[in-house]
Amino acid sequence: MVEPNTNRVAEHRHSVAEALDALFDPSTIAVVGASRTKGKLGQAVMALLKSNGYGGTIIPVNPSGGEIEGLAAARSLEEIEGPIDVVVLATPVGVALDALETCTRLDVKVVVGVTSGFSEAGDDGHENEMRLRRIMQDAPFRLVGPNCEGVVRPASDLQLTFSPMFNGLRPGPVAMISQSGALGGLMALRLGERGVGINAIVSSGNETDLTAADLLEYLGNDPQIRVVLCYVEELRDGRRFAEAARRLTSDGKHVVAIKGGRSRAGSRAVQSHTGAMAGDDRVISAVFRETGVIRARESVAAVDAVTALAAGRRPAGNRVGIISVTGGLGVEMTDLAESAGFEVPVLDEATQTALSRYVPFYGSVSNPVDLTGVVLANPTYVGRCLEAVAADPGVDIAIAIITFVPDQQFIEALAEAFDSTGKPILIVWTGAARSNASGEALRERAVPVYDSPARAASGLAALAATTGEVA
Amino acid sequence: MTPRETLENWQRAGRKVVHEADAKDLLQRIGIPVPKRDPAEGRCVAKLCHDDYPHKSDHGLVRLGLSPQEAKQAAAEMAERFAGGTALIEEMEEGSVAEWIIGCKRDDTFGPIVLAGPGGILVELIDVAEIRLAPAGPQTTEAMVDSGPGARLLAGLRGAEPADRGALADLISRISVFFAENADLISEIEINPAMVRADGKGLVAADALIVLSPKADQQENPT
Fold first, then answer.
1. CATH 3.30.470.20 residue ranges in chain B?
2. Which one of B107, B125, B179 makes the best mutation probe of the A interface by having the most chain A beta carbons within 10 Å?
3. Identity of the residue in A234, A277, A283 whose CB atom sits nearest the CB atom of B127
4. Are A280 and B109 in contact (CB < 8 Å)?
5. Chain A residues touching chain B at CB-CB below 8 Å
6. What phi and psi, each to the nearest 5 degrees, are found at residue A406?
7. How many Å apart are CA A323 and CA A334, to the nearest integer?
């Protein structure tokens, strides 16, 4: 192996904050395993970094040198002069470990280990895992991963990942920590489609060094971040995670978490009733509730919850006003809202009068309001009706249900209605997928848009956090 | 000797499950009320406490509704059958309005936690408990006794007398603090049931169990 380190630059271990400051706003990134060969991880990482417009220095590292993505490649990390904020490891595991060992002798702040083949590989990865831990024991830098999909920060045009699932995200108030890269990708893509702005995404992988708790503590201190979405399978320092979550939620921020593996039965023999009654899953639910964490049953429900919370509007109560261009969807939305503990009260008389200017005699102006298809005749009518319902003093949350969009003005009118009030507004747009281009006015305002009443109900539940869980 | 030193002694002696009589001695020292021992009159309960038989009723080691004289006799008989046990004769608690379970354990993910819910036979029947991180302060434990299905029982269902929720909240807080401070020595502690009397009249721990952690050098994965 390697000689004892005598020429180490950083004598101390960087703090989590130092490392993550560098990670999210790096001046220099070295990509170990950068490649010209399509299909290799290092090629994808380089291409995504470049194409997303990252403005700092990118140094491809490849033993054969030459040019990669138009940049001169270093043959090894040692060839690079000066400090390196971030080293990405995107090579097979043996090479990655050699590079990691080299990093201990250089001025590196943080390493992102995309490489797999450690503890997650079971017995086959055991030796690699042992070597990884030995290196990390006295490494001055911090490590994200390994076995992770990387880091994304739209505001820094930073896309340190091999996965295209994170393309085209806009900056905003949501951060995501995911132990699974693929679930992170699924959630990011959906949030992006809905226009929800992202501050940072970290795929934390095996968490050999930096854990979900470290990341939650750090991201929670960022005043720009309003909602943190977490996917966790194993919380290594669960107590610290819970305390960090408690601090965030008592500051008025939100933590939405999915805890994977919830059906696994406890493995230890039970000595007492306490052991049997406080099973793993119940404890997770209880601790999340105690610390203000909204527990989502699965990833799409989590996205629904975050979509509603990211708009940053809090309801004053649990009274919902629903308008719909069709009776059936209004009824379904009402059923779901009521069974989630919300009220769907009869609207104020003044509101009913205002609505009756647009609604024909065979519709309904009570609640849910059945606008009927007639309102589609004028593109601004639905927007006006939404405004009227949102202005009702007996309504805390307004929901507008639409199917297809006849023209652009229709959407603009809904966006204006959103601007007309400070109350939370949710839109159920069942034809959203086919009329995606016209939704920009909603996306740029981060108006929560759902494709079905059930999905909107998850958003509704998160908004009021009535039960502490969303399904 | 402090309660902690007692725990250390037990652990050194290789005890794993600490029987009711010893567990109650310890609980009393941290301010948790237990039934009066060896009463001269009134109805009594006789038990034989043994580390190897924590589930006493399964082995016929609990006798209820005895006179003090009968209790002594019953205790002597049981002691003969199970060598190494400790006989316990206590006043039978008959004025309670609710039976509650209060337990603490170390959760693999979140560390020390405390739970409280309907106890006694209700544990098997409805199995609902409020769970919080330990230590839990008085505000938290007051919320625990006011939350969930158990809260309705404590408030007095259909005209029943309301239970002493203040005393129960105090017990939960006390035991959670004690457990969290000694969670390196104790892996579980449980009172089941605590007999909660009507409001203002307090409660007593009718049964208790302490499960000790193995000594550090005997643990499978010392960290």
1. 3-34+94-216
2. B107
3. A277
4. yes
5. 234-235, 238-239, 242, 271-275, 277-278, 280, 282-284, 286-287, 290-291
6. -65, -40
7. 10
* pLDDT given for residue A266 in this prediction: 46
Q: How confident is the model at residue A399 (pLDDT cuts 50, 70, 90)?
A: very high
B101 forms beta bridges with: B117
Place domain A16-146 in its CATH homologous superfamily.
NAD(P)-binding Rossmann-like Domain (3.40.50.720)
Q: Which CATH class is domain B3-34+94-216?
A: alpha beta
Domain ranges of chain A: 16-146, 163-310, 320-465
Q: In chain B, what residues touch A242 (CB-CB under 8 Å)?
A: 110, 133
Cis upstream peptide for A140 (omega within 30°): no
CB contact under 8 A, B101 and A275: no
Predicted local confidence at residue A435, as pLDDT: 61
The ipTM estimated for the assembled molecules is 0.89
A284-336: per-residue pLDDT in tens? 999 999 999 999 989 999 999 999 999 999 999 999 999 999 999 999 999 99
pLDDT tens digits along A171-216? 999 999 999 989 999 999 999 988 899 999 999 999 999 999 999 9
Instruction: Point out the residue among A238, A271, A286 whose CB comes nearest to the CB of B131.
Output: A286
Report pLDDT for A344.
97
Cα–Cα distances (Å) from A428 to A63, A65, A366, in that order, read: 54, 53, 19
> Contact A209/A138 with Cβ under 8 angstroms?
no
| Residue numbers in chain B where pLDDT is lower than 50 | 222-223
pLDDT tens-digit series, residues B107-150: 999 999 999 999 988 888 888 899 999 999 999 999 999 998 89
For residue A184 the two structure tokens come to: 């992170």
Which of helix, strand or coil describes residue B36?
A: coil
- Rounded Cα distance between A270 and A124, Å, is 33
Residues of B with Cβ-Cβ distance to A280 under 8 angstroms: 107-109
Query: What does CATH list as the number for A320-465?
Result: 3.40.50.261
B104 to A274: CB separation less than 8 angstroms, yes or no: yes
Q: Give the pair of three-digit tokens for residue B186.
A: 């104790």
B184 part of contact set with chain A, CB < 8 Å: no
- B104 contacts chain A (CB < 8 A): yes
Q: Closest residue of B to A270, CA-based?
A: B188
* Residue whose tokens read 């098997």: B124
What value does the mean pLDDT of chain A take?
91
Question: pLDDT tier at A63 (50, 70, 90 boundaries)?
Answer: very high
Please give the CATH architecture assigned to the domain spanning A163-310. 3-Layer(aba) Sandwich (3.40)
- Cβ neighbours of A443 (radius 10 Å): 18
- Out of B108, B133, B188, the one facing A242 most closely (by C-beta) is B133
- Taking contacts as CB-CB distances below 8 angstroms, the residues of chain B near A275 are 105, 188
Chain A: residue whose CA lies nearest to B209: A272
